[in-house]
Amino acid sequence: MTFNKKLSLFAAVVAGLVFTPAMAMAQQAAQAAATNKFDTNGWLAAAAAFAIGVAALGGTTAQGRATSAALEGIARQPSAAARIQTPMILGLALIESLVLFAFVVAFLLQGKIQVG
Question: Domain limits at 82?
């Protein structure tokens, strides 16, 4: 995939993320009487599931790339294994902490769902 294709894909995703909530808020006034707690609960559950999914996908991708690059560096220069391994483990721990943070956010969103 070329850089221009990646850039245009990134721009399309960002535009979708920016303009979708704006369109949803524009329709909210017209449909205020039709909304109820079940609509809100559904969106909160979807947001929690999306947060966990994106965090898991991004975390595993980042951990795989970091491990691959570290192992490639060690394979090219075995004498530098100790200098490569320590930052790699630190990086993997930080990546995992971001995934756990997203899990906590999703858990908090799940707690906002009103039952009954």
Answer: 37-111
